[in-house]
């Protein structure tokens, strides 16, 4: 990659690089204040940490999304056109929604005992084979499929 190619690439993607950089800054600060061995200690700490990280990234992306709506020339220069600023606004808004939605999900998952999930998997496998058995009546098949759907959901 020549120097000119690098400059052109940087000019084309400078807005996206800033979005990624600003999204990672709170994660770096959070990691600097917490011990990383705490994260991998058990599943409770892991899911708590993932939930916090998702919340931080979602919050920053939401703030960036609001910033992208101000229609200033310097934003247009960063993204090479106002239409690309609108595209970035759309993408960051969607990503912010996803990250903010998964934030409470991971905080709730930390309370689930993972050993129980193994028994749910065994039950689903047992019920799945019952649902494809051709000797069962239609009502028994419907019940087994409904129970499978409940376990999987």
Description:
Helix 4 crosses helix 5. 84% of the residues lie in helices and 0% in strands. The protein has 153 residues and is mainly α. It contains seven helices and no strands. The termini are far apart.
Task: Spell out the blueprint of helices and strands.
Blueprint: H1 3-33, H2 36-39, H3 43-67, H4 73-79, H5 82-109, H6 114-131, H7 138-152
The counted number of beta strands is 0
What is the structural class? mainly alpha
Fraction in beta strands: under 5%
Q: What is the helix fraction of residues, given as a range? A: over 70%
Taking all residues together, what is the mean pLDDT?
80
What is the approximate shape? elongated
Question: Could you describe the largest sheet, including whether it forms a barrel?
Answer: none
Q: What's the gyration radius in Å?
A: 23 Å
Give, in order, the helices and strands.
Answer: HHHHHHH
Low-confidence stretches: none
The helix tally amounts to 7
- State the separation between the terminal residues, measured CA to CA: 49 Å
